[in-house]
Design goal:
The protein has 6 helices and 4 strands. It is an alpha+beta fold. The chain folds into 2 domains: 6-54, Winged helix-like DNA-binding domain superfamily/Winged helix DNA-binding domain (Arc Repressor Mutant, subunit A); 59-136, Alpha-Beta Plaits (2-Layer Sandwich). The protein has a 4-stranded antiparallel sheet with strand order 2-3-1-4. The longest helix is centred in the N-terminal third of the chain and has 13 residues, at 34-46.
Length: 158
Amino acid sequence: MSSIDPLDARLLLALDDDPTASAVALARTLGIARNTVHARLARLQREGHLAVPSARVDARALGYELLAFVEVVLSQGHSSSAVSELARIPEVVELHATTGRADLLARVVARDTPDLYRVTNAMLEVDGVLRSSTAIVLDEALPYRVGPLLERRAGGAG
């Protein structure tokens, strides 16, 4: 996987500023050829540097007002099958294998606390899941961001 260079970073920042910008508009903004914009976006997509567009959708717009993080402890030897099964639960929107007290950290959305109870029980029914611990998000103190990192890279710093 290649890294994002300063021009890629400038291109991504321009897309952050205007997500609906055309290749022509991006080329004009950045002072580069339209074909360069197309080629770089295609490479970034191909190499997995761009998230799927649905990652931009706020789950609250779909009626999922509650966000929680669930630590999941697995029995040995069930990691890949448990991840596959947990991924089938639509409200499990993100999973990370971790070190520490738990084997997985799941980002989970729910409509309300009874719905969260249903979702966490569905997670516990997955073969290989031993136990879980849930923390409900009260406020998003700092949303996920990479803009400052892109700005640093766009400036040419490592």
